[in-house]
Write the structure tokens for this entry.
Amino acid sequence: MPIIKLAILTVCYKLLGAVTEVIADKKITSLIDQIGDVFKIFLGILSAISVMLIIGTALVLKMSNSAMMYR
């Protein structure tokens, strides 16, 4: 769920930056685009940590099953 939420927030801020480019000052548009970039970085970090968690859990399960097999 958090990955989907961050992806939606990233898209929303990027669209908001595109819309405000026509209406608002360049500084405000730049700020909104940078906020979208920060959410994109958060999305990458969260995805990488999720993959590492899945791989770590799989490794622990594999090690515990092979130890039980030799008993």
Q: What stands out?
A: The radius of gyration is 20 Å. Residues 2-64 form one domain.
